[in-house]
Amino acid sequence: MTRFEGSYLGANDRISPLAIMECKICWTPYDPAEGDDTRQVLPGTPFQALPEDWKCPGCDAPKHQFMVREDPGSPALMAEQDIAGRTSMLVADFKDVWLSKMRDVPLINQALHVEAIGFRLHEGRPLGVLITPWFMNLVLLPGPGDDWSDLVQGTKEVIGFPSGDYEFLHNRRDLTGGYKACSLFSPMGDFNSQMQAQDVARAVMMALFDPANRDETNRAADIRAAREAELAPPPGMPEAGSEGDPAGEQGVTETAPSRRRLITAGLASEPASVAAAPETGERD
Asked: Region (Disordered): which ranges (predicted)?
């Protein structure tokens, strides 16, 4: 249960839409689930959305004389605000990288922009996907009690999830500070739009916590062999990079990453040549 020390005083940012308020004069409650029949306020109306001239049904006390009796949404609201603030700094860091170093690099995808997708708390730490025009990474940020200021860039760490164990690299950015990143896709040429990249990022977050994917992600040798077979040119076709294919473009031509690629290539632990996702030319 959460209570204010004083009255409500119009502090909308201190309560969630689920907050049950109470008049400090006559103790009449306002429950958003019930609304207020006396003023024709519909059920589901948060206290913040009441008209400014709304008054207590019991004693006509003004709205600012109400206090929080109970706010079941408050912890979630605080966590959501913290994640939003942290991810905004992550996005700001990589927008700076984009503008200062990557904007004119040939490998970037001009259809994409920097965006944080699906961040949620995992064991007390914000976890989600970062999309940029040149890579898509799973990113883990430090929790409230973590000090990641001494992370050494490039250090590898294996972190376990319900779907398997994945290799993360330690890194640092000016605003974000220390963080850990797992490569998903790089470069980003397979994506035709930001919406498509968003959909794949959300699918990654779902697949990551699905134990049914564990067997697939742990079959590294089988996966690698299958991928090599997929990338091999058909009989009679020149190999990638040969004189008959100087651009090195022969191979799989998917317009969107398939579910198999998402789970086995996007998330499985693979050699750097397959899964490297550079930030600015170095591995993330």
From this structure: 229-284
